[in-house]
Structure formats: structure tokens, C-alpha cells
Amino acid sequence: MNFLKFKNKKLFFENTAISKVATRIKTPFYLYSLGQLRFNFNNFKKSFKKINPIICFSVKSNSNLKLISELKKLGSGADVVSIGELKIALKAGISPKKIVFSGVGKTEEELDFAIKKEILLINAESEAEIRAINKIAKKNNKIVSVGIRINPNISAKTNKKISTGKKDNKFGISMNACFEIFDNQYHYEYLKFEAISVHIGSQIMDINPFKKVLNALSNFNKKINLIGINLKYIDLGGGTGIPYSNSEKKFNLKQYANLVLKFKKTNNVEIIFEPGRSVCGNTGVLISKVIYLKDAPGKKFIIIDAAMNDLIRPALYGAKHQIYPLLKNSSTIKKNTEFVGPVCESSDTFISYNKYQKLNEGDYVCIDNIGAYGRSLASNYNTRPYCAEILINKNKYKVIKQRQKLESLIN
Q1: For the chain, which end, N or C, has fewer CB atoms within 10 Å of the first or last residue's CB respectively?
Q2: CA separation for the pair 239, 277 (Å, rounded)
Q3: Using only C-alpha atoms, what is the Rg of the chain?
């Protein structure tokens, strides 16, 4: 995280000491860096400059309206998977012509709304959905731009719970099925097939799965060219990962960009990307307070006021988010230390360390890399309100989403 650093034993986000915010805002809360968000998006854009893609930020990774609005200012479009996300993107000022709608189970209401808004693409994921889009398009008397998401049956070499490109995953359709739809496109008089899309999973750190996907797409594009299908776009989705520890290397965007540039020239198409985590993952941290210290045989539990409902990735995926004290000291806990939350589930645990600095009840800690799938996967489990969301800009901060009032949950 470029903008998260210790200065004189205090943890800073940009030019703001996090301890200053923690003493004024009720914990737990999400804290974002505007500088990091801008840096990440501009770095992604710069990496693919020669390709000049349409960059559609994946709203499911973080749907905070203020952050989406800031990305819009930087030139981002939006990839959405629900009517709610589509409305957020539009409210943030993103042009409908820079919005793609993905997802396997779009309802009639959602499709009707997207068609009326004349968005860039609806990426269909089944033949049944294509029939539904055609029917609704006819009712609206509109020609609708459609992409077909293909499932290339390629392993993303990532956590199986976030792998989406194998044939036994629910996403997309086979290349053979896609070819048949294209070959019978005259059945769909209100649809304009302009794209194929692919997304094989999330948190991918290896370039090889992307190489395989690009090769498969090139071969498929040649095949459909023979039946008169000349695509305008190929949507390569997202999936590029970020390091969650110092031992992990960054994904090589430059290497990927070289592959995609060659692919674009060969296939004569425009490229769409749908980055999420790589843009917002390290822009956020979760700030929490130590409630209790609890000794157990061979272990010390540090019970904090953040829980699995605020950050479910460790419980859901076994993900490891590093935890830092807001104030460094030289004392050490001389036993295994496990950070856990207060929710009544054994899976409400974050991370363990063989050694950790000494903490006291009432101290504050920072859980890193929660900008993607932190707040967006949060819940009210155990009737716990959603946390506040705070945005830092250099040495200033402001609340961009208020903490949910407990009373709103009790009715």
C-alpha cells in the first residue's frame, strides 16, 4: 500500500495519522485513501495506454458513491451486476455508453431498465437470457447491443470460490453454444451482437491463465469471422490480483499489456477491461479497537470490535489481511497471537502471528487491503450496524457514508 506508512512510530494514511481519526470516529470504520485510488486507476490506465481500452470499474468490488464519482472524473466507466449498481453508476455521472451489465441472473426489471438507459453492452450469460433481452427490446422497440460471455474452461489458478472460468462454474456459455447463437442470430431481430466477454476469476497473480484465454479468444474470433460475425469489442473482464503480504509480488501489468496489444492488433477489436480489486483493493483499511485481551493455553486472543460481518473475506475465503498497530512500541507478546472478532462464530477470526507487539485494551489496529470486497460484502449479522466510511485526502478526512443507526435494524 503506497500511501500507508509508519512515521515516527505512528501509522499514517497519506498525510494523516490514523490515530487522529480513530479517536474521533466510532470504531470499527472503513478508511479510504483518495490518493491511492487515483494512483491505482492512473497506473492501470497508463499500463494499457497503447491499447486505449474502455475501463469499466467493477462496482461490485466497492460501490461507495463518492469513490465511483471520483473514478468517473478519472475517465472510468462501470461494470455492474445489478440494477442497484447500475443506478449508483448513473448517479455518479458515468455515461450509459461506458457501462456494461454482467451477471447470470438479470431479472426482467433489470433488463428493461438497462435497455431504456441504452447502456454500452448487456453481457448475456445464457441463451435463455438472450431470448429475454430480445423480447424486452422488442417491447421497447429498441435495438440492443449485446455481448455474450463465454466460458473458456480455463483454470484461473486462484481460490476455487472466486474461479469463474471452468466448465462446471455457473458463469457464461461454452464456445460451441456461443457459435450456434451467432450462427442463428437472425432469430434475434432486436439484438446487435457486438462483443464477447470473458472473466475467469479474481485475484489472479499468474500471467499464464490470461495467455491461454487470449489464445482461445483469438481462435474463436477467427472461427466466427468465417460466418460473418465481426465483433466491435472483446471484453476481457478483470481478475488481476494484488499482493496481500510482503512475500507476494505484484501482478505484472506491463507484461499483460504487451500480450493484449498484440491480441488487439491481430483481432482488430476494441478492448474493454473490468478491473475492481486492482483499482480499489489497497485503497482501504478497516480501523478497529481492542476490546479485550484473553489468555488461552499457548495462545493470546486479541478481541477487536471489527468482526466477520465487517470483513468476511478471512472467514469466506481463508484470506489473510495484515493487521498493524496504530502506534508502534518495542514490547513483544511472547506467544502465538490471534486477532478475533466478537461475532458468535468460530470463523470470526482474522489472522494469527507467532509474535506481535504488545497491545493494551483500548488500543487501535488497522486491517489492510479491504478496499475491495470489504464493505461490499458486509452484512448486519448479529444485528450489527454497517460501519461508517471515511475518505482521506492528504491531511484532511471526511465521512462519505455515515455509520448505520442501530435503530434502523430494530423494527
Answers
A1: C
A2: 8
A3: 23
What string of DSSP letters covers 304-336?
Answer: ES--TTT--HHHHH-----EEESB--S-EE-SE
Cβ atoms 287, 22 nearer than 8 A: yes
CA distance 332 to 328: 11
Greatest alpha-carbon pair distance for the chain in Å reads 73
Confidence grade of residue 246 (pLDDT, cut at 50, 70, 90): confident
- C-alpha span between 11 and 184 (Å, rounded): 60
Asked if 171 and 125 touch (Cβ cutoff 8 Å), the reply is yes
Strand partners, 284: 32
Q: Residue holding cell 464493505?
A: 375
Task: Single out the residue of 230, 231, 241, 237 nearest to residue 213, CA to CA.
Answer: 237
For 156-197, what is each residue's pLDDT tens digit?
555 455 444 445 556 789 999 999 999 999 899 999 999 999
The CA distance from 345 to 328, in Å, is 30
Q: Are 363 and 289 in contact (CB under 8 A)?
A: yes
Question: What is residue 219's three-state secondary structure?
Answer: helix
Q: Is 344 a known active-site residue?
A: yes
Domains of the chain: 4-32+281-409 (2.40.37.10), 34-279 (3.20.20.10)
CA distances from 188 to 114, 125, 150, 236 (A): 18, 15, 18, 24
User: What is the dihedral sign for C-alpha 121, 270, 278, 201?
Assistant: positive
The pLDDT of residue 60 is above 70: yes
Provide the pLDDT for residue 1: 65
Q: Compute the average pLDDT of residues 339-360.
A: 96
Q: Is the pTM higher than 0.85?
A: yes
166: how many CB neighbours lie within 10 A of its CB?
Answer: 16
Q: Is-contact 321 304, C-beta < 8 A?
A: no
From the candidates 56, 344, 366, 387, which is the catalytic residue? 344
DSSP 3-state assignment of 69?
helix
DSSP 87: H
Cβ(164)–Cβ(117) under 8 Å?
A: no
Q: Tell me the backbone φ, ψ of residue 372, rounded to 5 degrees.
A: -110, 130
Instruction: Identify whether the C-beta of residue 163 lies closer than 8 Å to the C-beta of residue 156.
Output: yes
| Omega within 30 of 0 (cis) for the link into 28 | yes
